[in-house]
Amino acid sequence: MEKTVNTAWYAKKCALGTLVCCGTELVLLVLASALILRGAISEEMANGAVLACAAVAAFLGCMIGARKTSKRAMMTAGCAASAWVTMQVIGFFVYDGLTPERSLELAAAMAVGAVVPLLLQRNGKKGRGAKARARRKRR
User: Fold this and answer.
1) Residue 83: which of 11, 10, 25 has the closest Cα?
2) In this prediction, what percent of the chain has a pLDDT beyond 70?
3) How far apart are the C-alpha atoms of 62 and 54, rounded to whole Å?
4) pTM score > 0.70 for this model?
5) Using CA atoms, how far apart are residues 119 and 135, in angstroms rounded to an integer?
6) Could you give the CA distance from residue 40 to residue 78 in angstroms, rounded to a whole number?
7) Count of Cβ atoms closer than 10 Å to residue 77 Cβ
């Protein structure tokens, strides 16, 4: 029997995924900045480090936001899109302007990070085979 889920539940899950994604990205950016200042990451590699932070953050946010839902693809897209918009707004206020190239690079990195949870999901029912076989044997 299939239960219907309230739309507010999906919105709450998407907001949680967005919060996790943005928080993770900000923490990773702080760590990357510290590594750049200490000289562990060169100035030329700074752009790649920022994009890697965005991809990892999108991965974590989408994993959290889309887990335990029947609409994983929709929730993953929603979490990634809302996290991207949120980070663009934060970037606009912090850096006083955005460049289209930078926004597109960040969107591509976050899209790569968001696709990974969809590729890692398991299709089919997990853990039911052994239980069903044991039940059939008892009958």
Assistant:
1) 25
2) 86
3) 12
4) yes
5) 32
6) 35
7) 18
